[in-house]
Amino acid sequence: MNNFDFCSPTYFVFGKDRENETGVYVKKYNGTKVLLHYGGGSVIKTGLLDRVKSSLSKEGIGYVELGGAAPNPRSGLVYEGIKLCKEENVDFILAVGGGSVIDSSKAIAAGVLYDGDFWDFYSGKAALMNALPVGTVLTIAAAGSEGSGDTVITHEDGMLKRGAGGDCLRPKFSILNPALTQTVSTYQTACGATDIIAHVFERYFTNTTEVEVTDRLCESIILTMIKETPRVISNPDNYDARANIMWAGMVAHNNIVGVGRTQDWNSHGIEHELSALYDCAHGAGLAVIMPAWMKYVMKHDIMRFCQMATRIFGCEMNFAQPEVTALEGINRFKQFLSSIGMPTSFRELGAKADDIDYLVDTFGIGDGKTGGFVQLAKEDIRAIYEIAANE
Ligand code: NZQ
Ligand code: ZN
Description:
This protein is an alpha/beta fold. The protein folds into 2 domains: 11-180, Rossmann fold (3-Layer(aba) Sandwich); 185-390, Dehydroquinate synthase-like - alpha domain (Dehydroquinate synthase-like, alpha domain). The chain has helices at 22-28, 42-45, 48-58, 75-88, 99-112, 120-123, 186-204, 212-234, 239-251, 266-278, 282-297, 302-311, 322-339, 346-349, 356-362, 378-389, and strands at residues 11-14, 33-38, 62-66, 92-97, 134-138, 150-155, 160-165, 173-176. A hairpin with a 4-residue loop joins β6 and β7. α11 (282-297) crosses α16. Bound molecules: 5,6-dihydroxy-NADP and zinc ion (ZN).
């Protein structure tokens, strides 16, 4: 196991009706004037936004509102949010929504305290050292942004989807009421489940040895997702299955399962080009890319893929031909994704093989290589898109 530092300072408030305590937690973390940031309207429709506003008012906390954060959130609204916060002397950003709303909130939080263009953090020009405090009321189990220090934004100029991160962006508190996720559509629920599994696999595929505790934690999260996702798909109101998925989504990405080991993250990078170009759901893009990536890199460490196949997907170990076991594990993963309604090919996603040149060009590594498990250059990225296109 490698040396590591791990600080996950977010205060989690979990369970039924807990959103009614939002004001208490904003106050606890010294918020006096809040930017109430939300998405395309689901929180208005469900009445959640009104409950959150009442809770703020009960504690005497003022707020200004900014709705409209889109899935794959855009830079335009971030600039608008930064301007609004400065004009209104906002000192706390409250995200009410999913990963997109939270990521947009984090970008605004970082931008308000920075003299330059907030995009500098995403283009790699500046390091993220400081941000306004962010709190979240989560409405979908997926991105894990409620516990992570990460944010992903798409810049409209060139439609570049890029990430930034820093511990200063970890939310001060996150309120997780699984009942709030009961209104998420079946498709978005499955996209979220796929993203959660992908966050674990990005960490699971590592070259670091002697990482039994995090290996086993990773496996337990994926096994949970394999058990619980079909339960919420067949019964969207199943609170207990929703609760397990919601906590799995947090644990999958606050890095507790990733400490002390190298991590890969190429599937995410390769996927981000798809959601930037086609505006598809991030989880759907991952369902197409992850199995293709696995097939491409499998030979790098067949025994790690066999471990996945046997411990997670219940495959029999073929000691004479381990690559048969590894491939069987990948195929079972793909079958699981199909069974929950995810696309697993370019065709099913609506992506086009003709766009591969563009996708490879915009993948921001120049002539370099990227990835913590297998280092990939542009020609490797192309090969992975081609596998997905030929499925
Ligand atoms: O916008 P509204 O109207 O709220 O509708 C949303 C949106 O259409 C809807 N939704 C959310 N909660 C709902 C609901 N509909 C009904 N009832 C509810 N309770 O679901 C749709 C998707 O929401 P979104 O926030 O986009 O989903 P998700 O949480 O999957 O976030 C995706 C974004 O997170 C990024 C992705 O790249 C993508 O841009 N990621 C962020 C990460 C991070 N910050 O750590 C890590 C991830 O790897 C990921 O890249
Ligand atoms: Zn993700």
